[in-house]
Design goal:
Elements (H helix, E strand, L loop, with lengths): L1 H4 L6 H6 L17 H10 L19 H8 L1 H6 L17 E4 L3 H6 L11 E6 L2 E5 L4
Antiparallel strand pairs: 1-2, 2-3
Amino acid sequence: MGPERIRGAYAWRTFLRLGVPLTFNSDNPGSSHDIFYGLHAAVTRRNRELQPPGGWYPEQAVTPEEAVRAYTTGAAYAAFLEERTGVLAPGRWADLTVMDIDPFVAGSGAAPEELLRGRILLTVVGGRVVYEAGNR
């Protein structure tokens, strides 16, 4: 990509400053399907090995809340479903995921790498349990 164009890659903070809605997902081909790694990378700008020190273009990092919103309301917006899903509210689809960590606490704490150890405990889609840890 070259040194100039690479500065625009994953420029989350710049996008937010310009009013561009962020959409994160965990199903891009060639990328990790692990939402905890995605949250960690967005908040710290580091990989699983915690590299590079200080983060890759750390000025582009987002807060844990901004990262979670990109996975929820941002994804709903990108799918033209913002009136049906993306938040828990009366009349919306009952889609939710229960994690064993609080990404807001872990992501903004002294050790955001705790995000990498998160696990999904329960997934509900349309009000029906579709995944429960330990019940495969």
